[in-house]
Amino acid sequence: MAFQVEQTEQPVNEPTVTPVENLEKLNSSGLNEKLKFRVQLCDVDGKLLEESTEEVACIALSGEKPIESQYSTPFENSNPEHRLPTLMGQLQSGEWLNTLDAVVSAIPFLGKLSDEQKNQLGTLTGRSNLTKVNSVQVFTSTASIHLPMTLLFEAWADAKTEVEEQISLLEQWALPEQLSKTTAAANLAQDFSLDSIFPSLVPPFVAVSYGGKRYAPMLIQSVSAPIVAPMDRDGNRLIIQVSATFISRTAWDKQDIINLYSGIQS
C-alpha cells in the first residue's frame, strides 16, 4: 500500500537564496583560499580567460604530482650476452666447462682437457662483461605532469548549485567543446575551408589552483563521479567524492618547477 503525505508547508531545506548567492557563500565560507581547489578556464599560455566567470570550487581530499622521465641503455645490445646469450650464460655458470670437457672427451683424436686447462677456463665462472660504461643510462624523454586528485563536493545550502552544477562544469571541460555530426567530405562539399576539414573543437585548457600554486595550462584527462549517492528530493546529489586527473599540455622543465614554487604565472 502506498501512502501519500500532503505537504502544506514549505520544506525546511528549501533554498532561501539564489544559486549565484549560494556559490558566493561557498567562496566566502571562511575557508582559507589556499585550501580551496579551483579549476578555471585559461588560454594556451595559461592565462585566465577574462570573459569567463565560471569556475569549479571544492575541497581536495587527496592528490599528488608524480614526475616521470624515461631513460634507456643503448649500449646494452652491444654486450656479447645479447648476441650469444646461451654461451655467455654457460661461461658465467661454469656449465660451459663441463660441456666442453664432455665434447672433447667424446672425440678420440682430441683427447681430454688437462687440469691446468680446466683451471684456466674455470676462472670465467661468476664473471660478467657488464661494466659501468655499457650500462650508462641515456635520457630519452619526460612525461607530461599528471595531477590525480580526489575532490569533495558537498551541499550546504543548495545541492544543485554546490554539487550538480560544479560537477557539470568539470565534466563539460573534460570533453570536446563540439563534435561535428557530419564527415569532412560532407563539410567540404558545403564549405571549402580549413574549418571544414577540422570541424570539431577540442576540450578547453584549464588552470588548476591549490595551496598557493597554479598549474596551467592543463587538460582534464579523466573525471569519474558516482551517480549513486545521497540525494535531495529533486535528485541532486548532496555529497560525493570525484576522481579527476589533470595533465599538462606539454612536458615540464626546470624553469616550470621554479615558476610553480615561486608563484610566477606562465
What's the layout of helices and strands?
Layout: H1 19-27, E1 36-42, E2 55-63, E3 69-72, H2 80-83, H3 85-93, H4 95-106, H5 115-122, E4 138-142, E5 144-154, H6 159-174, H7 184-190, H8 194-197, E6 205-210, E7 213-224, E8 239-251, H9 254-262
Q: Can you describe what's shown?
A:
The strands form two sheets. This protein has a six-stranded antiparallel barrel. Strands 3-4 form a two-stranded antiparallel sheet. Residues 1-8 and 15-23 have low confidence and may be disordered. The chain folds into two domains: 19-68 and 144-262, no CATH class; 71-139, no CATH class. A hairpin with a 2-residue loop joins strand 6 (205-210) and strand 7 (213-224). The chain has 266 residues and is an alpha+beta fold. The chain contains nine helices and eight strands.
State the secondary-structure class.
alpha+beta
Largest sheet: 6 strands, antiparallel, barrel
What's the SSE pattern? Answer: HEEEHHHHEEHHHEEEH
Averaging pLDDT over every residue, what do you get? Answer: 79
Strand segment count = 8
Task: Note the quaternary state here.
Answer: single chain
List keywords for this structure.
266 residues, alpha+beta, 2 domains, 6-stranded antiparallel β-barrel, two-stranded antiparallel sheet, 9 helices, 8 strands, elongated
